[in-house]
Amino acid sequence: MLMVSEKNPQGKNPGSFPYQISDSYPEAKASYHISAGHWRVSYSNHVDAMAVRALLSQVPIHDTDSILWGNCKACKLSISEIQNTIRTPSVRPGWYNVVWPKTLVPKFSCLLWLVMKQRLLTRDRMRRFHMHVPQHCVLCVSGTESHAHLFSECPYTLFVLQHSPCPITRSWMEFSLGNVTAQTARTLAVSHIRYQVGRDSSFDFWHDPWVNNKPLLAQFPRGIISILDSYPEAKASYHISAGHWRVSYSNHVDAMAVRALLSQVPIHDTDSILWGNCKACKLSISEIQNTIRTPSVRPGWYNVVWPKTLVPKFSCLLWLVMKQRLLTRDRMRRFHMHVPQHCVLCVSGTESHAHLFSECPYTLFVLQHSPCPITRSWMEFSLGNVTAQTVSNTEKQITYLFIAAACHAIWKERNARVHHNAHAISAHVLANLVKRNVREKLLTCTALLRSIRLDPRLEATVLH
Fold first, then answer.
1. How confident is the model over 167-176, as a mean pLDDT?
2. Helix (H, G, I), strand (E, B) or coil at 243
3. Residue 295 pLDDT > 80
4. Coil, helix or strand for 284?
5. Contact in structure between 261 and 236 (CB atoms under 8 Å)
6. Rounded to an integer, what is the distance from CA 8 to the centroid of its chain?
7. Residue 278: helix, strand or coil by DSSP?
8. Which among 411, 412, 418, 406 has a CA at the least distance from the CA of 344?
9. Sorting pLDDT into bands at 50, 70 and 90, what band is 194?
10. What integer best gives the mean pLDDT of the chain?
11. CA distance readout (Å), 82 to 77, 85, 88, 92, 248
12. What sequence ranges are listed for the domain Reverse transcriptase zinc-binding (predicted)?
């Protein structure tokens, strides 16, 4: 709408624009001054009329009225777009991509967010709130529990973090800034990336690391651009002609060095980015991980814990046994928990991983029902040498399954007696329960079952 002053409709107020000059009226619509797709206003030589005509000449006339927000039509406008336009943009913290990656698991990322914000109720914060709690870390029992200690300094934490595919910083300052991986990891990854230049290459000639994994500008002074008759945004294809490199024939020492480098770079039909000898389009994360990570040696008990015939809940429990991470009473007492130290199964020895799974008479009675003799030495057991080397592969698979089922049943019986005062199950009954679990699993393994039926002794021991 054309706006005019309403104080003096006759235009007698010297500070207002009189309606007579524009041949308009206060309630006029914009369409009143449009004719045949052009603006129609008075051709008065009044200075204000000329100013209005100059303004209108800059306003294009469209088919329909539209109210726009930026470059977006109002009919497609969203609240989020308005908010992103008018709000003051906040700077994302350095750890944003660490906490909220594309592969996030919500509960993990939310906890890590609290770690980065230092909002977990660690013992140092509890003491600042005048809460009477010990200050030592319960994981290592040596340092003072804080965010910095718990997540970057504690030996327990450091042991876990060292299994990461890429080295992780031990500095809490770097960690809290989001610099969690060492720069050597990026350097290591770049060393495996190779560029193949195509005839119509879209690689930046000066800025992409397609020569020796470094940009040319990182290898030569910036003046080399003008020496080679190039420009900063040049693509590699700019310097390719008829399948050959085309650069200036300057005798400058840097130009000669560039020509020597380019002579070692073959030109292919198309651009390709390679990882080792594998094209990026066929590249998998597992292949990258297997290339850059330090390969770990499998422990001797790996095949005992994870056999072909595994039952997940049995194998997970046996894994904790081998890692000695179950909360046995000897560990509880090391954590300053006031509990008896005797074994609840035999009421004679001190409860520990070694006693509970290789020395306790209750356990030994159960394990003697195994198809093959099992070692009684905890040292041999924890190294994975649980049976004699002369037994067949089929017997080993069955024995590994029996051990996992037995450890699961023994730990379950131990917990029932400790936490629920449950009626004690005799070792004979528990052994029969373990044998039944093994038999039920074997009946689902067709190939192994076929091997068992070929051995009458083994069939009589396992399936009956």
1. 77
2. coil
3. no
4. coil
5. no
6. 70
7. strand
8. 418
9. confident
10. 84
11. 8, 5, 12, 20, 52
12. 84-159, 290-365
User: Would you say 301 and 247 are in contact if contact means Cβ atoms under 8 Å apart?
Assistant: no
| Inter-residue contact 57 to 33 (CB < 8 Å) | no
Neighbours of 295 (CB within 10 A): 6
Instruction: State how far the Cα of 347 lies from the Cα of 343, in Å rounded to an integer.
Output: 5
The pair of three-digit structure tokens given for residue 214, joined into one six-digit string: 């470094």
Give the pair of three-digit tokens for residue 405.
């089922």
What is the number of other CB atoms lying within 10 angstroms of the CB of residue 196? Answer: 18
Q: Judge whether residue 304 has pLDDT over 90.
A: yes
**Strand 267-268 vs strand 193-198: parallel, antiparallel, or unpaired?**
parallel
pLDDT at site 187: 67
Sign (positive or negative) of CA dihedral 363, 364, 367, 368: negative
- How many helices (DSSP H) and strands (DSSP E) are in the chain? 24, 10
Reading the block at residue 117, the tokens are 């914000």
Contact indicator for 18, 49 with CB cutoff of 8 Å: no
d(CA 241, CA 365): 83
Query: Cα separation of 220 and 63, whole Å?
Result: 56
Measure the CA–CA gap between 260 and 447, rounded to whole angstroms: 62
User: Which tokens belong to 193?
Assistant: 């990336």
Q: Using the structure block, give the residue that is written with the tokens 């730990």.
A: 411
Pair 195, 210: CB distance under 8 Å: yes
Query: Hey, which residues does 152 pair with through a beta bridge?
Result: none
List residues bridging with 272 in a β-sheet: 196
- pTM (2 decimals)? 0.50
Give dist(CA 177, CA 179) in Å, integer.
Answer: 6
pLDDT digits (tens, 9 = 90+) for 6-27: 334 444 444 444 455 667 888 8
Q: What sign for the dihedral angle of Cα 262, 267, 273, 279? A: negative
